[in-house]
Amino acid sequence: MAVLFSPANPVVKLCMMAMKSEAEGQIESAQKTVQEAIHVATNDFERFVTKYQYSRLMVSVDEKLRYLEEALEHALRVDDENVWRAYPTLYEKLAELYKQKGDLDNYEKFQERANQSRSVPKDRGPFYHGTKADLKVGNFLNPGGNSNYQEDLQMNHIYFTAGIAGAGLAAALAKGEAEERIYVVSPTGDFEDDPNVTDKKFPGNLTRSYRSLYPLKIVGEVSEWMKLTESEKQKWLKDIEKSQGEIIN
């Protein structure tokens, strides 16, 4: 069964808690939280995520290198497209650390792997879009809508994901009181990784989130998924309100 990167995963939740502590300057607290996540991780995907996070929080090059190499070992055991897309980031960071150590042979080796791993075929989906709009199969979702995360910001792109959990989150956070909906969509033109999530603390684009300047055609609708509870939704809204990050539009 494919591994899905989900904010509902307990290990991912702990990593996100650590990120919050890190953003507040509480590095020691962040390290302890990631240590807890490493302890409760049960599979290679979770160990890959936690060891990557721990590497980020280390100070010395040797410690960073140790945990990043362990993260790569776990990632290579996971047969999942979410993780494949993290390879370029992992290899590039390893190359940079080896360069800092003066190990030019390993620097060149991992830089070459980073370049080769970028040739992974474009994500083939299926793709989803979460919203509160009542639409029909055959309708189109167009760029130019207002952001759910920043008031008075008109988005240049239309956003979508290959993960139902991510689409469910978008539906829950969409403005309005209408019913949450997840549509199965087909891009009508080129698309790119969403720069607002790609390589932002987690490596690569684990959420498989994308954006396009071209419309998305609705080809179906998802009838059942794990919805956020009201308390989870309010927590997300509060975190978004506190966030100081600028949306890349």
Label this structure with key terms.
249 residues, alpha+beta, Serine Threonine Protein Phosphatase 5, Tetratricopeptide repeat, ADP-ribosylation fold, four-stranded antiparallel β-sheet, three-stranded antiparallel β-sheet, 7 strands
The low-confidence parts are none
Overall residue-averaged pLDDT value: 87
What order do the helices and strands follow? HHHHHHHEEEHEEEEH
Q: Roughly how much helix do the residues carry, as a percent range?
A: 40-55%
State the CATH superfamily name of the largest domain. Rifampin ADP-ribosyltransferase domain
| First-residue to last-residue Cα separation | 34 Å
Beta content comes to 5-15%
Radius of gyration: 19 Å
What's the architecture of the largest domain, going by CATH? Alpha-Beta Barrel
Shape: globular
What is the count of β-strands?
A: 7
Derived from helix and strand composition plus strand pairing, the structural class reads alpha+beta
Name of the CATH class of the largest domain: Alpha Beta
Please give the domain count. 2
Tally of helical segments: 9
